[in-house]
Amino acid sequence: MKDTYILGIESSCDETSVAIVKNGTEDIATVISSQIDIHKNYGGVVPEIASRQHVKNITIVLEECLTKANLSMNDITAIAVTYGPGLIGSLLIGLEAAKTLAFIYNKPLIPVHHIAGHIYANNLVKELQFPLLAVVVSGGHTELVEMSNHYKFKKIGGTLDDAIGECYDKVARIIGLEYPGGPKLDKLAESGHNTYKLPVPLKDDSYNFSFSGLKSAVINLVHNEEQRKSTIIKENLAASFQTVAVEAIITKVKRAIVQKNIKHIILAGGVAANKGLRQALQDLATTLNVDLTIPPLKYCTDNATMIAAAGYYAYKDGRIADLKLNSKSQDELK
Ligand code: KG4
Ligand code: ZN
After folding, report:
1. 255/325 Cα distance (integer angstroms)
2. pLDDT < 50 positions in the chain
3. Helices 275-288 and 181-190 sit at what angle, rounded to 10 degrees?
4. Is the terminal CB of the chain with fewer CB neighbours within 10 Å at N or C?
5. What confidence tens digit (pLDDT) does each residue in 176-186 have?
6. Which fold has domain 5-120+299-316?
7. Which ligand 1 atom sits closest to the C-alpha of 12?
8. Which residues have any ligand 1 atom within 6 Å of their CB?
């Protein structure tokens, strides 16, 4: 059978990335240009600046990727692009690049949901097995997605308010860590102990999550300690927060595995880099005897490799768009 080379483009937030993946599993070449150093000065991603950077970077990243792969556009089977969700101005840059390439080189255009990309990052490590449970944890999402087969997504639960990554970043900011604080908070937690009492959010029998109460509990705790003129032990607060945040996820994941007869768990999204969550999931998978895949760090944060991998299965599923395709800042995974 002829090999399928998918060229993926990702620009939904602050990473401009182009990658080429062979047959949905093999990373042929990946190029990522991160804007983190620019946005760091503002304490978060500035959408207008992000779009301008994507405009500057996209053609350079594309050329570099083709050179790295030693392929030309004629070798490419189809072009997959993140159409949403994400920052609308940022998404548009990647989408326009993809449309232009599809038009000029007469290639199929494959729209990919950003979260489908995060899920398929795991396929670059090990082929997905079904029924599968995807634990999607990022700066914008906290979702449990059940998959009965390739590209058959069913969201069984999600956050009712803040996403877990957003909560990590906000808590990190409260204790004075620089943006993006999530990874720094995770690192700090390693040297601390669970000494501060924080509430485990949403202890119910749904598959949903809630993180805004936990964030408020941390803010209140810090204010109270300040008023009492006592010093916060940051490492311990980080460890206490991490314990509760991870427990909130693990409790629901555990129930889903049992109730839905899950064979394979995968971790997706930027927070998949979290050491506490990785360890807790590993322990759970061992106890319940299910397969667990956790992508390497380079595939956890935003990249086009995952978009190209997902794009392969979307292509096989006949999900081809025309040049009227538009980007969407919000969209359900389906
Ligand atoms: O998936 P991603 O790169 O972008 C979104 O689509 O949101 O995720 C970024 C999020 C940020 O909130 C970042 O702080 C968080 O993932 N994050 C972490 C860790 N590494 C990244 N949160 C906790 N622990 C980490 N090690
Ligand atoms: Zn992401």
Report:
1. 38
2. none
3. 70
4. N
5. 998 889 999 99
6. Nucleotidyltransferase; domain 5 (3.30.420)
7. 6
8. 13, 138-140, 165, 168-169, 180, 182-183, 186, 269-271, 273-274, 301-302
